Amino acid sequence: MPKELAKEIRANFKWREEGWGQMKVTVKIGTREWKTSIWFDTKHDTYLLPVKAAIRKKEKIEMEVGKEVKTTIWI
Question: What residues have CB less than 8 Å from 67, skipping those under 6 apart?
């Protein structure tokens, strides 16, 4: 996720983080919506959103570094 967005989320919602920087969220990509977690990565100073292979396949998402995927996240 963009670092500026991650910085804003962390400033306002860090209190919701659980162990290892995990934060429960609801995510929507395309027509798929599911409950999952984002994880704060101190090396990259941003949150990471793991996307299951089944979701990537159904939404035809090819994962590559720097590729943007329109995502809605509810915290």
Answer: none
